[in-house]
Structure to design on (322 residues):
């Protein structure tokens, strides 16, 4: 009994977390069984003739995978490689088995992150409820050198040649519990089997350090770009519908903006009323959220351009493992 109480106190579990522990145990058993069924060949793995790189994590929430996917895709493009990207298109209402995404696609149909990737890379982007179907679509319709999966570490029906796990550098694994009591989708020990671990926002032994670096602000209506000191000491609204909004707000504060914040759930489908504020302050958002606001954009709305900074050693390690 004392060991249980010690665990609860050490992990700062709330009443709801404790109530949900039986469901977390069931989730752990089912996810472990599912992984074993794929490993022993009872469930089919769909392999691709094109190398597949998975960029995922063992937790839910915003670990910063998509900027890293964009950085990796742009690296391979710079090496004259033809790149494809697959995603589930979370939040999209598409009904097709596979849907190709362009920079003009509607985020309500295909999800916000695939549109963002299409806008910031020259990759062929496809979404599918089963990512293995998206991989099949790409290999059938394009002559590619590499396919990157945005998330999908747990999508075992999709064969992969290399696994990259992204760990959010500050919160890491939260309370260390499985869904729904905690953020874990798989055991932390799963990281022992991946090829590369990226620590997004901090440093740890055996992990590749990554930093999301602010670059500029862009006006959503006019596409005008301003330097990072443009909102210094200016009252602004900061709006975010991402997994870790506090990281975004800190980045804005680091640039000197004076913030009134408003947070929404991850992948929130923004409507005009969400951004109706009393004062006529600039509204600062992420690029991921702004792709869903283009059809009602005003000159008040700006998004922060960021990029994932990874070392040359990382890319050399990446290529050596493929």
């Amino acid at each position: 009994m004392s060991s249980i109480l010690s665990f609860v106190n050490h992990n700062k579990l709330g009443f709801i977390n404790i109530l949900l522990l039986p469901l977390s145990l069931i989730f752990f058993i089912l996810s472990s069984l599912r992984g074993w069924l794929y490993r022993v060949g009872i469930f089919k793995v769909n392999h691709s003739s094109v190398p597949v790189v998975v960029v995922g994590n063992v937790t839910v929430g915003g670990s910063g995978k998509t900027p890293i996917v964009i950085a990796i895709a742009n690296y391979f493009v710079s090496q004259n490689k033809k790149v494809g990207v697959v995603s589930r298109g979370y939040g999209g209402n598409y009904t097709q088995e596979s849907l190709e995404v362009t920079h003009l696609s509607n985020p309500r149909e295909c999800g916000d992150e695939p549109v963002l990737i299409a806008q910031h890379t020259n990759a062929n982007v496809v979404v599918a409820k089963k990512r293995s179907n998206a991989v099949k679509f790409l290999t059938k319709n394009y002559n590619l050198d590499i396919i990157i999966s945005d998330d999908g570490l747990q999508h075992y029906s999709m064969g992969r040649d290399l696994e990259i796990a992204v760990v959010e550098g500050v919160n890491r694994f939260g309370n260390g519990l499985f869904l729904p009591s905690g953020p874990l989708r798989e055991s932390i020990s799963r990281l022992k089997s991946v090829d590369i671990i990226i620590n997004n926002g901090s440093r740890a032994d055996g992990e590749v350090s990554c930093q999301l670096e602010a670059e500029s602000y862009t006006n959503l209506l006019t596409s005008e770009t301003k330097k990072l000191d443009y909102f210094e000491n200016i009252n602004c609204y900061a709006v975010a519908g991402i997994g870790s909004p506090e990281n975004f707000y800190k980045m804005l504060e680091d640039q000197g903006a004076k913030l009134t914040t408003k947070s929404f759930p991850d992948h929130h489908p923004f409507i005009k009323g969400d951004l109706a504020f009393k004062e006529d302050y600039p509204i600062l958002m992420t690029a991921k959220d702004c792709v869903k606001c283009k059809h009602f954009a005003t000159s008040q709305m700006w998004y922060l351009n960021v990029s994932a900074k990874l070392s040359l050693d990382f890319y050399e390690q990446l290529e050596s493992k493929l």
Remarks:
- DSSP finds ten helices and 13 strands in the chain.
- Residues 208 and 313 are 9 Å apart (CA to CA).
